[in-house]
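Form 7-S
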Amino acid sequence: MDGGAGGGRGARRGPDAPPALGAVLGYRVYARRWIFLLVLSLLNCSNAALWLSFAPVADIIAHHFVLSTKQINWLSLIYLVVSIPSGVVAIWVLDSVGLRWATITCAWLNFAGSIFRALPSLAIGIEDPFAFLMGGQSLCALVQTVVIFSPAKLAALWFPEHQRVTANMIGTMSNSLGILMANLLSPTLVKKEKDIPWMMGIYIIPAGLTCLLATACLWDSVPPSPPSAGAARCSSERFLEGLKLLLHNRAYITLAVCFGGGIGIFSGFLALLEQVLCVKGYSNEFAGLCGALFIIFGVLGALVLSLYVDQTKQFTEAVKIGYCLTSVVCVAFALVSQLQGQTLALATICSLLGLFGLSVVPIAMELAVECSFPAAGALVVVLLTALSVRRAEPSTSTCQDGGGPLDWKVSLLLMAGLCALFSCCLTLFFHTRYRRLEAEARVSCSIQDDVDRAPQLVATP
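Output:
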């Protein structure tokens, strides 16, 4: 059932008492907001799973389709490359066509991409399977930036003030759950080359289910009545005017640079984790476990932190503390990963890296809305890989890439240094007002004063 934002709950009111402030303001929350969040979360999860579905079984995929490892890596890297130009377009799409049609379109593109990339394994006589694999991945990559930006938009338009961060956390962390699903599901499904069609078909199922739910269950881009004062004022600026305002917003630029850099570091960490650890003799299974711990603890941390920030509104403090602790743990990873036999320490470090770093992602996205109201992952991967060098001396490497083991010392120290740099910049230079919360407080106080001065003019239920 749809329910009013402030009516029907709590202490009983007398017949002459004024109604709840939410009813006076005309604010209302709708139960179907959770359906919208479910669809968006499933889409985010499916898209992320398609992104990294090839990585855990790259050697089997490469042998089956007669491709090089570099070509298989590009099936994941294409997501990061496409996100660079499509990021700005995603903002325009969300503002121009609305959240509903953007979500439905992305669901269909994601579904089409999942089918297109499966054709080489399901059809016979395809001469260039890489073209179909890359084409399908590219269609899915076009979806990524829109679905990553959408949870903050959905939370702002459909959810009341005390649920926004939690809703944003659920939508954003579903992307991490998709990455976790790919790392666990692909190795489980693919033991031999004959299992590849089965894996491709399994990944089509969540994409198809999401497409069906998005088409059938999403009715409106915005609710009939806003859930809060912030949502009531959430009419976006025109695209170019809004972009110009953001370019003059120092707090937003600082957050965007530091947050974007942090996302790039995390993408590089996940993409290169197995290659870094195998040099020191750690198995692929252990590298997968470290990646899983990073995501699991990140999701748990995001859940707890989002509930806390929803109540306290301490966005800035949470992000700054999280980034500083992340930089410390990143330095620890750069040092300990160069040692052998440190499985417990590395597992703990990866868990803490997710707990401190990944958990602040939805908070940082929500903070970006607050400081801008109303108004580079591929580079990191390429840079870190370029700085690694082959070693000729004997080692305990378990890497199976056919070449000598790589030395990642310089790359990992650079990653730790960048993380520390972004943390320092954010801590020292990021200061902002919570513009949306201030706007909601002003409207609420104004209406409350009117209700107190003239209760006889307010209709009682």
